[in-house]
Amino acid sequence: MSLQGKIEAEFEITAPADKFYNIFKSEAHHIPNTSQTGTITGVAVHEGDWETEGSIKIWSYSIEGEVGTFKEKVEHDDVNKAITVNGLEGDVFQYYKTFKGIYQFIQKDDGSNIAKLTLEYEKLSEEVAVPDKYVRLMTNLVKDLDAHFVKA
């Protein structure tokens, strides 16, 4: 059995794809303020700044009764409106050797918008669970943002 895996989730979002991409790319400091589910409790720049690719941020989160931190190095893909967060340190590394999240926001030809979330990982052992709860965290984060954008 392979220790590597990938989980994907895709769902429709109401707000324009550009709004999501822009908040992840350059305004991530606003995300904890939009968290209706309390999923994201804080974010801070560790190295670099809020806008520059390669900057390192530390996120604080709460999921299924657990609190944790996640240190990431971010990549931007302006053409595909995708943000890749490469995990460097944090609580997930108790269970996973590698951990990479991809948030992609797509505006379709009919004007509708889609969020496509991908989580690529490598478990430390076969006993480690598939990281479904972290995909739920990613989904809750995007849905909280969508609700915030629609209200604004």
- Backbone CA Rg: 15 Å
Mean of the pLDDT scores?
A: 94
Query: Beta-strand percentage?
Result: over 45%
* Strand segment tally: 7
What's the arrangement of strands in the largest beta sheet? 1-7-6-5-4-3-2
Q: Report the helical percentage.
A: 10-25%
The helix-and-strand class reads alpha+beta
Verbal overview:
It is a single chain. The mean pLDDT is 94. It is built from three helices and seven strands. The chain has a seven-stranded antiparallel beta sheet with strand order 1-7-6-5-4-3-2. It is α+β, with helices and mostly antiparallel strands and 152 residues long. It has helices spanning 17-26, 31-34, 132-151; strands spanning 4-13, 40-47, 56-63, 66-77, 82-90, 96-107, 113-123. A hairpin with a 4-residue loop joins strand 4 and strand 5 (82-90).
Short description, anyone?
The protein has helices at 17-26, 31-34, 132-151, and strands spanning 4-13, 40-47, 56-63, 66-77, 82-90, 96-107, 113-123. The chain is α+β, with helices and mostly antiparallel strands and 152 residues long.
